[in-house]
Amino acid sequence: MRSISTFCRDARLRRHLFACIAMLAFAAGPPARAEITEKGLFGLLEISSDDLSALPMWRSVMDSFPALADAARECDQHIEKCDTQQMTLWRTKIAELKHAEKRIQIMEINRFLNDWKHLPEADDEQSRWITPLEFVSNGGTARDFAVMKYVSLTELGFDPASMRIVIVNDVLRNRNHAVLSIRYRGTQYILDSLNNTLLEERLVTYYLPLYSVNNTTRWAHIPQDFMSADEVASESEEND
């Protein structure tokens, strides 16, 4: 069987090249307790692992969550201690939504945060992930919007296991992007910083997921025919 790096060099189809990016995240060493799901997000095959060491910047962001919680608590208890106007607005929105219906919470968090400052997307996917506390003060890129929605919905009682920050390739704009995926009542939804509508994942055909992550797991997303082509090549080489 050919190595992943060899297959990446030989692949001609664009989706295969993006699949290589995801696969190489798992190529550095054997992941701890990896699992393969044939039909994952966006209908793609996905490989999951509970080893988050390959994503140190995401781990750094998670390490910052207690600082955000402390700042939010101070703001809730003493409005004069809210660091910024944006912090005050965020805490007001969270309080407003505490007893709302869950679907309304999802829709309103998406709409509310999409009005915040959008920073230019970085060309380098390895650029630093900013913390939610930084986002509250300065806004951020699509990835930071997805993280802030993840944090906000977690505070409103959603199970983090039902959500993922998904790094995608936007095939219409030919650039990387990020969204939040959430499963609610058996349906997968996409929260996008470019769209205030709550989108059913099955209707979103212009994003190709590269990898996704939450607080316990990371996933690589692979087109089904990527694996099929690899298996065919492997059989051909064995018959030579």
How would you characterize the overall build of this protein?
Helix content is 42%, strand content 21%. It has nine helices and eight strands. An eight-stranded antiparallel sheet has the order 1-2-8-7-3-4-5-6.
Comma- or semicolon-separated keywords:
single chain; 240 residues; alpha+beta; 8-stranded antiparallel beta sheet; 9 helices; 8 strands; 21% strand; globular; disordered C terminus
Shape: globular
Strand content: 15-25%
- The stretches of 5 or more residues where confidence is low (pLDDT under 50) are 1-14, 27-31, 229-240
Mean pLDDT: 84
CA-CA gap between termini: 12 Å
Number of helices: 9
What class do helices, strands and sheet pairing give? alpha+beta
What kind of sheet is the major sheet?
Answer: 8 strands, antiparallel
Number of strands: 8
H-E order: HHEEHHHHHHEEEEEEH
Helix-residue proportion? 40-55%
